[in-house]
Structures are given as structure tokens and as C-alpha cells.
């Protein structure tokens, strides 16, 4: 059985998007512009993807409007909207934890929690995230959308891997 992995990028000061929800600041420092980073290797471990409506909408309207970037992998979009499923894209309006539990039981590879803050926060509070894989972007935003705006208790972690590339540092943590 795979893990539920929250894999995403954030600014050095803990934001996953700017005040307008933008992510155009997601870049390294240019020191290794051709470095592939961790994404290709990570994606090879992923069997299924979960994301919130905002992340999905940003993908299809702004970041990749002409081509679905996760073709061939089932993707579940958590939303209250009534949308028709598409090829490899399923709209889920049930309980989020039930979805993740179901997917972990059905797939052997990792369940990627792709975004955003609401989905990540709910799953973290319910203890459903097995691994945090954070790409720390060398940018300080000062304000925006926090990864975890408020948590009711401390969450001790164990660092299992680091990888620097192009000024970005990947930090991989698991719960202690």
C-alpha cells in the first residue's frame, strides 16, 4: 500500500500562493536552470491524485488550459459543485477522509494530495497525511495563502530526506 503524500511548493515563509492565489513566483534562483528537480521522480510513485476545486480550476484555466497535466492518472477533485466526470477526472462531493481511505485501499502507489490548503489542512487534522514533501522556493512572499493557517496542536515530524536543486530545497518529512 502506498502513502498519502502532500507534495507541493511553498515560499520560505510558508505560503503556497500569493494574496490573489497566484503561483507565478514558483521558480528557483537560476543557479541550475536545467535541473529537473524532484517532480519527475515523485510523479513516478503516484497512482492517484486528490485536489481541491481551486487547484483544479487554476490548472485548467491558467496553468495548463490546453492539456490536462496528469493524463493517465485518475484525479479526484473535491468540490461541492455538481460537475460531470471527465476522462480521468472525477468530482467528489462526499467526505474527504472517506475518499482518501478508499483510494489508499484501491491503489498500491502513492495518493498525491496536490492542493490546496483547505484539502491539506483537513487531511492533516484527521491524521490522513503520511508524508509531507515540501519544495521550499527561495522567495519570501510576506502574505498569501498559508499551507496550514491554524492547527490545534503541535505536530512533531521526522526529516527523512533533503534535496537541493536550483536554489530550491525539498524537505521530506514523516510523522514521528
Automatic annotation (TrEMBL):
<dbReference type="InterPro" id="IPR002734">
    <property type="entry name" value="RibDG_C"/>
</dbReference>
<dbReference type="Pfam" id="PF01872">
    <property type="entry name" value="RibD_C"/>
</dbReference>
<dbReference type="InterPro" id="IPR024072">
    <property type="entry name" value="DHFR-like_dom_sf"/>
</dbReference>
<dbReference type="InterPro" id="IPR050765">
    <property type="entry name" value="Riboflavin_Biosynth_HTPR"/>
</dbReference>
<protein>
    <submittedName>
        <fullName>Dihydrofolate reductase</fullName>
    </submittedName>
</protein>
<feature type="domain" description="Bacterial bifunctional deaminase-reductase C-terminal">
    <location>
        <begin position="6"/>
        <end position="163"/>
    </location>
</feature>
Amino acid at each position: 500500500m502506498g502513502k498519502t503524500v502532500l507534495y507541493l511548493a511553498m515560499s520560505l515563509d510558508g505560503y503556497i500562493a500569493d494574496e490573489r492565489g497566484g503561483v507565478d513566483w514558483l521558480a528557483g534562483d537560476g543557479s541550475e536552470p536545467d535541473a529537473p528537480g524532484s517532480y519527475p521522480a515523485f510523479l513516478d510513485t503516484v497512482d492517484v491524485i486528490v485536489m481541491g476545486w481551486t487547484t483544479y480550476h487554476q490548472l485548467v484555466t491558467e496553468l495548463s488550459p490546453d492539456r490536462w497535466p496528469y493524463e493517465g492518472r485518475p484525479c479526484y477533485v473535491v468540490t461541492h459543485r455538481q460537475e460531470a466526470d471527465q476522462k480521468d477526472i472525477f468530482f467528489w462531493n462526499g467526505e474527504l477522509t472517506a475518499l482518501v481511505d478508499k483510494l489508499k485501499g484501491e491503489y498500491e502507489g502513492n495518493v498525491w494530495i496536490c492542493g490546496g490548503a483547505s484539502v491539506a489542512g483537513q487531511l492533516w487534522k484527521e491524521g490522513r497525511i503520511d508524508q509531507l514533501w515540501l519544495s521550499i522556493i527561495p522567495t519570501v512572499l510576506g502574505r498569501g495563502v498559508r499551507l496550514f493557517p491554524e492547527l490545534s496542536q503541535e505536530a512533531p515530524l521526522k526529516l527523512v530526506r533533503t534535496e537541493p536543486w536550483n536554489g530550491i530545497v525539498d524537505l521530506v518529512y514523516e510523522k514521528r
